[in-house]
Structure formats: structure tokens, C-alpha cells
Design a protein that fits this description.
heterodimer; A: 147 residues; mainly alpha; 2 domains; 4 helices; 0% strand; extended; B: 413 residues; alpha+beta; Sulfite Oxidase, Chain A, domain 2; five-stranded antiparallel beta sheet; elongated
Chain lengths: 147, 413
């Protein structure tokens, strides 16, 4: 037991050291900016814990009520993918960061790209579900003893 | 009322289990580690003058910075599912059982907020959306240490649970698992957990089934699968920014993968405040050594021995493109002003606006024969937005330091 505990202790101390380095670097920032950092740190946590997580629970509850147990699996895979893609796409939609006169950056049609990616995810999930059902059907047919 | 003030039991999904947290946590830990290490390397390449950032392989920075952005994006779905799996723990009662428990919860809050913060401002940065007044690089760097440190601390604290969860079959009943590393005498995570993956809330004894936002019927294997599939898809949606043959799939990459002369532009001449006059016929390059000052007009630079190299240009925001660059070796210019090839240089641009108007070129880059003051790009005279009349191009160097519209080079060491 001593060695694992020693390893954990070292890991923990290493973690505290890195946190310390981060704090020293943060404290080099002026107070106004530091307050902004604090605001963003808290906002991220609150938005996740207060909005995103309960909304996800509500959506998964609704999805669970609508879909069969087997269909629900692929719905879950699709929803996690689409949800993540949507979060990543959010700052790109509308291209608020685009610079006039430079179409080489933020020059894609992100709305279409996001929609196509989501559609492909849905098609992939549906195909996986169909293949899974066919396999299950074939498997159960084969396992039926011949007379 | 129970829904308004949730308890752990409000979320009875079997997926919300250490079995899922540990398995998704492995991927998340790997993604964050890659992101952290490559982020440190990027800072070393940009800011640490003493750090001997190698010039070979020429695609070194392309790989590390591409990995930084791709791993950060890939971490997002893993983080979301990981947080989903432990979300009920937020409502543990009583909220603080002891000083140790309180500190443990505080460290988790620090970890979660730091990782969400890093991924959020990272994604906003590659989209060039700045919703804050602070310097992105300084803060992203500082909070990265906090995120990585609190991750290590979290792993150290949770190691027994992680080991236990990984040692057991993924769908095994949780009721015998400890839920907190600090105490093993706590209540099990879910008194209603069942070994049957297809169990639903409706199948629980009525007196034990709590009011709930969800039903618990999805197998954990599927939850883990969803995290990794989503992670792969998210990575693919941006990877083409760094990996050219995936460019068509990179629907969420900020770079379109091409531009004038086949190379995207991060900052245009107009955005940098370059005037027609400053790059007109009177343009002169000045190179200053300890003993000599040399000046060259554009025609004189063209008359010097020209070299062609194929080097990638890599933006710190992750995108990169290979190109053929032609121009004068920096070491040839140094020889002309009697300076050794292994000189540390300050490269100064004509730009009057925006950051990175000058950069420091380390000795190993100055001496590298592939480091050019480029006059041509992919067979054509350098476009105005690519740095006409001349720009620096060096192997394995962050794009922001490949100074454009170069007017002056000073030997500083």
C-alpha cells in the first residue's frame, strides 16, 4: 500500500506545483483583466452546471420517452456528436471574427458545413442502427435450433 | 420540488457512473495532456529565447500546433460526457462533509472551470472572436497550468475509484463501489443502480424510484462509445486545417486551406497598416551588425543568389500549408555585413498596426540554410498580403514570427 500511496502523493504534489505556476503567471496580469478571467472561469462553470447539464438531462429524458431502448443508443451517439459539433460551430456561425478583405480565413460556409456534418452523423447513426438490427435478427435466426 | 432542488438520485441513468467517468476520463486525460504539452512547446518556440527550438524537422511546429488545436477540439465531447457522468455528484448531501471533502470539491470546481475556460477561449480564438479585454496568449498559458495541475491532483485523489472502475466490467453494478476517494464509508452512488443494462426507472420499486429527468436504460458502453465517436467527429471537423488532405472534411476549420498564391493569409497588408509608399520603389532593406550596416533595394535583393525551399507555414491557430519559397538566405545577408551565421536577430516589419511587428530569430534558425528572406512564393512574386517586398520564412517556426514586410534586420547577439 505504501508505494501506491507514495505515487498518489507525488502526483498530487506535482498537481499542486503546476497550479502554483499557473497562479503565479495569472497574478502577473493586472487586476481588471484578472477580474475578467475570474468572470470567465465562473461563467463557464455556471453555464455548464446551470444550463447545459440540466438541458441535456431534460433532452435525454425526452429522447428516452420517444425512442425504443435499442434506437436510443444511436440517438445518444448522434446527439452527443451533434451537440459537440454545434458548440464548436457556434462562434463560427455568422463569422463575427471575419476580417474584411481576407476571405482566406473564416471563408467557409459554416452553417452549411455544420448542417451537412449533422446530417451525415444522423445518416451514420441510422445506418448503424439498421445494421445492428439486421445483425441481431440474423444472429437470433442462426441460434434457433434446426429441427 | 425535487426537480427544482435536484439530488443525486434525480439523475438515475446508469451511464452516470465511475465506470463511464474512468473510461471517458482516459481519453480526456490524453487529449488534455497533448494539448498542454504542445501548448507549452508553442510558448517555448515563441517566447523562450534560451530554448533551443529545433529547425528540423521543418514540419515540427506544424505537427505540434496542429496537434494542439485538434486535441483541444477532440477534448470537448469527452469533457461534456465526462461531466455528464459525474453531474449527480454536484448535488451530494450534505454539500460539505469535512474539510478534506470541501477541499476536494473545491479542486474539482477549479479543474472543471479551468478546463471549460481553456477549451472555450481556445475555440473562440481560432474563430477570432475575442469577448474579453485580456491578452489571450498570457491567460491561455497561465490557466493551462492550473487546468493541468488540477487534473493531476484530481487523478491523485480519485485513483482508487479509477482503478476500481476500470478493473470491473463496464456494466457491473455500482452499489459496491466507493464513490469518494477520501472516504470509503459513504453511501453508494446510486441505491437504485441495477446490473441489468436495460433496466428502466419504471422497473424500480415504486417507493425507491425518485422523480427523475431521465430514464436509466442506455448501456454504459454506448455512452462511452458516443463520447469517443463525437470526439473523433469533432477532431475531423477541424483537422483539415493542419492536414491538407483532410481539408475538404474540415467544415469547422477557420482556414479555407488556400489563398492568393495557394497560401491563406492571417493578417492582410491593410490590417497591418502597410502603405503603398512604404513598399514602393524607394523600399530598402537594412541589415545592421555590430560593425557594418548594409542596405539593399528590392532589385539588389533579386540580384543576390536566390534559393528555393519547400517549407510549411503554420499559424498558431493551427492551420498550415506547404509552399515553395524563393529568396535570399538570411545567412548570406549576415555574411554581407560581416556577422556570423549563428547570430540572434531582430526582424522588424514595416507594419504599423497590430501585434507581431517584429520578431526575434534564434541563432539556430539564422544559421539554417533553409531560412530565407523570401521574395517569391510558389513561383510568383510575393503578393502584398503575403509580405511583399520580402518576408521571413524559416523551418519549424510559428507563423506569427514569420515576419512579413521586412524592412530591417538587427544582429542582437
Amino acid at each position: 500500500m505504501t508505494r501506491p500511496r507514495f505515487g498518489r502523493l507525488l502526483l498530487g504534489l506535482g498537481g499542486l506545483t503546476l497550479i502554483g505556476i499557473g497562479l503565479v503567471n495569472l497574478l502577473a496580469i493586472d487586476l481588471v483583466n484578472l477580474l475578467w478571467v475570474g468572470f470567465w472561469l465562473a461563467a463557464g462553470l455556471l453555464v455548464h452546471d446551470g444550463i447545459l447539464a440540466p438541458a441535456t438531462a431534460a433532452v435525454s429524458g425526452l429522447a428516452a420517452a420517444k425512442w425504443s431502448a435499442s434506437g436510443r443508443r444511436m440517438v445518444l451517439v448522434a446527439l452527443v456528436s451533434i451537440g459537440s459539433l454545434s458548440l464548436i460551430a457556434l462562434p463560427l456561425l455568422g463569422k463575427p471574427g471575419a476580417e474584411a478583405g481576407n476571405p482566406t480565413l473564416l471563408g467557409r460556409n459554416y452553417l452549411v458545413g455544420w448542417a451537412v456534418a449533422c446530417l451525415l452523423v444522423l445518416i451514420g447513426a441510422a445506418l448503424a442502427e439498421v445494421v445492428g438490427r439486421l445483425r441481431a435478427k440474423r444472429g437470433s435466426a442462426q441460434s434457433t435450433p434446426a429441427r | 420540488m425535487t426537480l427544482l432542488v435536484p439530488r443525486e438520485e434525480t439523475f438515475p441513468s446508469r451511464g452516470r457512473s465511475p465506470a463511464v467517468s474512468a473510461r471517458v476520463g482516459i481519453g480526456l486525460g490524453i487529449a488534455i495532456s497533448i494539448c498542454f504539452v504542445t501548448g507549452l512547446l508553442s510558448h517555448a518556440a515563441q517566447d523562450l529565447v534560451w530554448f533551443p527550438w529545433p529547425t528540423s524537422p521543418s514540419w515540427g511546429y506544424r505537427v505540434t500546433q496542429g496537434a494542439h488545436v485538434i486535441s483541444g477540439v477532440a477534448a470537448i465531447p469527452l469533457l461534456l460526457v465526462k461531466l455528464w457522468s459525474v453531474y449527480p455528484r454536484l448535488f451530494v448531501r450534505p454539500p460539505v462533509k469535512s474539510l478534506v471533502h470541501g477541499l476536494e470539491r473545491l479542486s474539482v470546481a477549479l479543474l472543471v472551470s479551468a478546463v471549460i475556460f481553456e477549451l472555450t477561449i481556445g475555440v473562440l480564438n481560432i474563430a477570432k472572436v475575442y469577448l474579453w479585454p485580456f491578452d489571450f496568449r498570457d491567460v491561455h498559458f497561465a490557466v493551462a497550468w492550473i487546468a493541468a495541475g488540477s487534473l493531476l491532483l484530481h487523478i491523485a485523489v480519485k485513483l482508487p475509484i479509477i482503478r476500481n472502475a476500470l478493473a470491473r466490467p463496464i456494466e457491473a453494478d455500482d452499489s459496491s463501489l466507493p464513490v469518494s476517494s477520501a472516504e470509503t464509508d459513504e453511501q453508494p452512488l446510486s441505491a437504485t443502480a441495477s446490473a441489468d443494462p436495460s433496466a428502466t426507472a419504471g422497473e424500480m420499486p415504486a417507493d425507491r424510484a425518485p422523480p427523475s429527468l431521465e430514464t436509466p436504460g442506455i448501456p454504459r458502453r454506448t455512452v462511452v462509445l458516443s463520447a469517443y465517436v463525437a470526439s473523433g467527429i469533432a477532431a475531423l471537423s477541424v483537422a483539415g486545417g493542419s492536414i491538407p488532405w483532410l481539408s475538404k472534411l474540415a467544415v469547422l476549420s477557420p482556414s479555407i486551406g488556400t489563398g492568393p498564391q495557394g497560401v491563406p493569409i492571417n493578417r492582410t497588408a491593410d490590417a497591418a497598416g502597410i502603405t503603398d509608399e512604404s513598399i514602393g520603389p524607394d523600399y530598402q532593406l537594412t541589415v545592421v551588425s555590430e560593425s557594418t550596416t548594409g542596405t539593399w533595394s528590392l532589385d539588389e535583393l533579386r540580384a543576390m543568389p536566390q534559393r528555393t525551399v519547400r517549407l510549411p507555414i503554420t499559424c498558431v491557430e493551427g492551420w498550415s500549408t506547404n509552399a515553395d519559397w524563393s529568396g535570399v538566405r538570411v545567412s548570406d545577408l549576415l555574411a554581407a555585413v560581416d556577422a556570423p551565421a549563428e547570430s540572434r536577430l531582430r526582424i522588424i516589419s514595416l507594419q504599423t498596426q497590430a501585434a507581431f511587428g517584429e520578431s526575434v530569430l534564434p541563432t539556430q534558425h539564422s544559421a539554417d540554410p533553409r531560412t530565407l528572406l523570401a521574395l517569391r512564393l510558389n513561383g510568383e512574386e510575393l503578393a502584398r498580403d503575403h509580405g511583399f517586398p520580402c518576408r521571413l520564412i524559416a523551418p519549424s517556426r510559428p507563423g506569427v514570427l514569420q515576419t512579413k514586410w521586412v524592412s530591417r534586420i538587427e544582429v542582437i547577439g
